[in-house]
Amino acid sequence: MTMDEAPRVRAGWAPFLHEGRRVVLRYAIDAEASLHGESMTDALGTILSSDDDSVEVMTKRGAVRVPRALVIAAKEVPPPPVRRRGRATP
Rounded to an integer, what distance in angstroms lies between the CA atom of residue 25 and that of residue 75? Predict the structure, then answer.
């Protein structure tokens, strides 16, 4: 097998894409079908499942299944900040 015939690393592969991790994934979308012509979007949340073909992320708006081949960038992120209570009114 020559260098040209070697299998290429799958786009979007990252070793930390495991269940329970909080991540942000930037992935490609169909620009013609998007509302404002965007070609990429993000999914921020906790990974529900991950396999060789896709990653499922639970976001604030629900579960999103992202094909790994469409992932442009992936990053593990810290837990969301704790919301502070508002000032008590006297």
Answer: 7
The CATH number covering residue 28 comes to 2.30.30
Q: What is the pLDDT of residues 50-85, one digit of tens each?
A: 998 999 999 999 999 999 989 999 999 999 888 888
**Is 31 inside a domain boundary?**
yes
- 43 touches 57 (CB < 8 A): yes
Determine the Cα angle at 47 with ends 42 and 53, to 5°.
Answer: 80
Pairing of strands 62-67, 40-50: unpaired
Strand residues in 1-90 grouped as ranges (E): 22-28, 40-50, 54-59, 62-67, 71-76
